[in-house]
Design a protein that fits this description.
Elements (H helix, E strand, L loop, with lengths): L15 E2 L5 E2 L6 H12 L5 E4 L8 E4 L17 E5 L7 E3 L3 H9 L3 E3 L6 E3 L5 H19 L5
Antiparallel strand pairs: 1-2, 3-4, 4-5, 5-6, 6-8, 7-8
Helix pairs in contact: 1-3
Protein name: Phospholipase/carboxylesterase
InterPro entries: Luciferase, Luciferase_dom
């Protein structure tokens, strides 16, 4: 993974509600960007889709099987769920990331910590360039859950 710092996200942060549900309510990601992101997420090694254990219905969640990945317990939201993408009307996602990466996400304006859980809300990608940044964060999340270097 790249060690370059995140580029700042353009414009003001979207409006967010929460903590339950914790979601993005403005600047919704276009559905095509959401679907491209989901296709990439589904292809992550060892990841499988199952109903979320922590998010709203219709959120799409990714898990690692038992015995796969050696990330710390806090690399998972509940059970073996490490990420979920919110429904189309929202388009944001919750990821588990190490604290230094979460701090970088917040400083660069790409998301914010969940007020009650140990996850970060990453804003949905508004265009192809933002998709690449969000995809980078998803890969860091996956690496963290797998027990690899999350940078």
């Amino acid at each position: 993974m790249s060690t370059q710092p995140l580029r700042p996200r353009n414009g003001p942060a979207p409006d967010v509600i929460g903590p339950a549900p914790h979601s993005q309510v403005t600047q919704t990601a276009p559905i095509m960007e959401q679907e491209e992101l989901w296709q990439r997420m589904r292809a992550l090694p060892y990841a499988f889709m199952a109903p979320t254990l922590v998010s709203v219905s219709h959120a799409r969640a990714l898990f690692l099987p038992e015995g796969v990945g050696s990330g710390p317990e806090r690399a998972f939201q509940r059970g073996r769920e490490f990420a979920h993408l919110h429904p189309h009307h929202d388009g944001s996602l919750h990821l588990t990331l190490p604290d230094p990466v979460t701090a970088e996400v917040e400083a660069a304006g790409w998301g914010l910590r969940h007020p009650e859980q140990d996850t970060v809300l990453v804003y949905g990608p508004r265009d192809a360039a933002e998709l690449e940044t969000v995809w980078h964060l998803v890969r860091l999340c996956h690496a963290y859950a797998m027990g690899g270097q999350a940078r």
